[in-house]
Amino acid sequence: MSRPVRARRSELATPASNEHMFAKAAAAGADLVFLDLEDACAPAEREAARPKAARALRELDWGATTRAIRMNGVDTRWAHGDVIEVVTAAREALDVIIVPKVRAARDVWWVDVLLTQLEETLGLGKRIGLEVLIEEVEGLQEVDAIARSSDRLEALIFGAGDFSASQGARVDTNFDPRADYPGDLWHYARSRIVVAARAAGIEAVDAPYPNYRDPDGYRTACERAGAMGFAGKWAIHPSQVEPANDVFAPTPEEIAHARRTVAAYRDAEAAGRGATGLDGMLVDAAHLRHAETVRTKAALLGRDGGEVR
Ligand code: GLV
Ligand code: MG
Q: What class of enzyme is it (predicted)?
């Protein structure tokens, strides 16, 4: 079964217990908003948050935003109720469920089977998609199997907060990983996640950036993630949506260059050559693939100029 194609440059977190934040989240312009039943909700609030989330999904105007929830992990007592109650009440108003702390493919199967039964019982007119958080060391070790575990799965998300705890990294001490560690402490995890996702034909989304008063740092983090192949990044505050949407979208110059690259390659091909030059740079089949990636992203955002001859 084919997966829906969605933009996910920005994925905005909103605690499902805090109803007063919902309208602002719905209007934030994020590609995806998830109402969080997990760690942004106090444990005592998690059950009461389910009907609040379902009502908001049904009743607010979300525009083009993908509507999601983050359920609790499959090893918690909330997982089953999160899925059953929210899907039953929200029905087609829920597009995606984010599953946290996935450690193995079987965690995804559990949610997949439950959803299949619910969709049939409720007679839902559409399939609910999944995204999963890789934020446990076991999950990273199993990431290839997890990425291929379900045809509902649309993206892997790197959860750097829990991952650092799971790995035992010293980020909450006087040790400053940015100053004292040569390189990106999370490069290995990020690389594995993005490669596993792309190899499985799905997308990778980068981690939350906790300092919401540091827009420059956030933008740099978006740029680095985009350079590695991540499709987007989490936003933990509405102010992070606009920079993520901006950085993860191809610029008009990139789109124009991609069109010229495709045209140059086609001309070379028609003349029986496999490579040519454009502005003093080589254009071969690999550049054609880069250009097609840019054009696919642009088309998804409605910014592509259409066919190249
Ligand atoms: C997200 O859930 C994280 O742990 O970073
Ligand atoms: Mg987490």
A: lyase
From 224, 247, 270, give the residue that closes a domain: 247
CA proximity to 102, closest of 143, 150, 68, 160: 143
Q: Name, in order, each residue with C-beta under 8 angstroms of 106's C-beta and a sequence gap of 6 or more.
A: none
Distance between Cα 61 and ligand 2 center (Å): 28
Model pTM greater than 0.85?
A: yes
User: Quick one: tokens of 2?
Assistant: 């084919």
Q: Which two tokens stand for residue 227?
A: 């350079």
Instruction: Say yes or no: CB of residue 139 within 6 Å of ligand 1.
Output: no
Residues 237 and 257 in one domain: no
In a domain, 256, yes or no: yes
What is the residue-level pLDDT of the chain in tens, covering all 309 positions?
688 999 999 999 999 999 999 999 999 999 999 999 999 999 999 999 999 999 999 999 999 999 999 999 999 999 999 999 999 999 999 999 999 999 999 999 999 999 999 999 999 989 999 999 999 999 999 999 999 999 999 999 999 999 999 999 887 666 666 667 888 889 999 999 999 999 999 999 999 999 999 999 999 999 999 999 999 999 999 999 999 999 999 999 999 999 999 999 999 999 999 999 999 999 999 999 999 999 999 999 998 766 665
One domain, residues 47 and 86:
yes
Six-digit token string for 32: 């995806």
CB distance 208 to ligand 1 below 6 Å: yes
